[in-house]
Amino acid sequence: MPIATVNPANGETLKTYEAMGEEEIERRLQLAQATFRTYRTTSFAERAGLLNRAAELLDDAQQDIARVMTTEMGKPVKQARAEAAKCAKAMRWYAEHAESLLADEEPAAHDVKDSGASRALVRYRPLGPVLAVMPWNFPLWQVIRFAAPALMAGNVGLLKHASNVPQTALFLEDLFHQAGFPEGCFQTLLVGSGAIDEILRDDRVKAATLTGSEPAGRAVASTAGDMVKKTVLELGGSDPYIVMPSADVDRAAEVAVTARVQNNGQSCIAAKRFIVHTDVYDRFAERFVAGMRALKVGDPLEEDTEVGPLSSEQGRTDLEELVDDARRSGASVLCGGQRPDGPGWYYPPTVVADVSREMRIHREETFGPVATLYRAADLDEAVLIANDSAFGLSSNVWTRDEAEVDRFVRDLEAGGVFVNGMTASHPAFPFGGVKRSGYGRELSGHGIREFCNITTVWHGA
């Protein structure tokens, strides 16, 4: 795949970039290693000052970088501005909280005495250069939720961004440089996916984090395992959205539309499988389909656009094939389901019902504005349908019955359970999944400690 900005609204190639050669990669690896030796000794206050400055610069650049993101991957520009604002918020959150999250921990006094020590503590120390392999769908947020905690912990970052968002990738490197971070603290590597293996095998790279597809995660995990290096993986998702009879069904249907089509439906944590109790199924379906039909699809740079194009022609083809396979296998397409005429990689908001386990759309992730609708006889069947997936990123449940909430929290196989609301990420809460959605956690204290050397310090009597 070429490293290029291709506008998904019209297919026009706007900018292309040459991949970095071996000499430039080597120079940057040397710089990362050298910078880490000194940056790791800086204080939390110094790092926080730099990160807060980066947040200020990002706020100042919000309008411009939003247009860049929209032009590169097609998200509505209002959502792009919100993404930039969210990134600045997360940077400030880690600047404020990192020191306390990584404070020395003192074991219980009786355990210290029992170990034969006069005193003991646990200290979190940075690992070194961390390789981040990041996707295009949230081209700022995916990077910042790694970079902010990593830099506050004293690590340095090497970013291999998706090849279709090179301008966003270069903006990020410049952002940290302009904020005053030492040269080499955060570097963008303009390379293709074929270069990842060799970079990860380099002894100077101490760990890796990847957000992306399952095949990409398998490749990075395999290499990292071979080299005995720590990894965090956030892969695909096919999140269930369960509606029970006690729920506010009208509100559930309204939120369901946003939960499905946020970011043009190209979000790992977007709700994708809508599992509705039979007692309220017809009511929910009517309102949900009407809401999907009413969405404005169009130029993502227009302020009132709600759904823009998919990021690539191949992405649209993949989505079409899932819908067409379901239709041929007996599913009902309640709205959408047909590629529109005209330029750009658009696909309409689509709802598919009467889905069976044999259909590809049941087993695979739909990365675009396509929802599948299921009828469940009771809570037990809702849980069975929800867990009948290779993925386990997050989940949404709508109910006013606390006993039902307890059951869902106990039984759903997911990294998150959002009750009477849609899944969203926040710097204070851990983010990640189970099963083929990956392992490890980003954000919160759990995320900042993922790339730390958890060190036991023991003093004899």
TrEMBL record:
GO terms for molecular function: aldehyde dehydrogenase [NAD(P)+] activity; succinate-semialdehyde dehydrogenase (NAD+) activity. It holds the Pfam family Aldedh. InterPro entries: Ald_DH/histidinol_DH, Ald_DH_C, Ald_DH_CS_CYS, Ald_DH_N, Aldehyde_DH_dom, ALDH_GabD1-like, GABD/Sad-like. Residues 3-457 form the Aldehyde dehydrogenase domain. PROSITE patterns: ALDEHYDE_DEHYDR_CYS. Keywords: NADP, Oxidoreductase. The keyword Nucleus does not apply. PANTHER family: SUCCINATE SEMIALDEHYDE DEHYDROGENASE [NAD(P)+] SAD. Belongs to the aldehyde dehydrogenase family. This is Betaine aldehyde dehydrogenase. The lineage of its organism: Bacteria, Bacillati, Actinomycetota, Actinomycetes, Kitasatosporales.
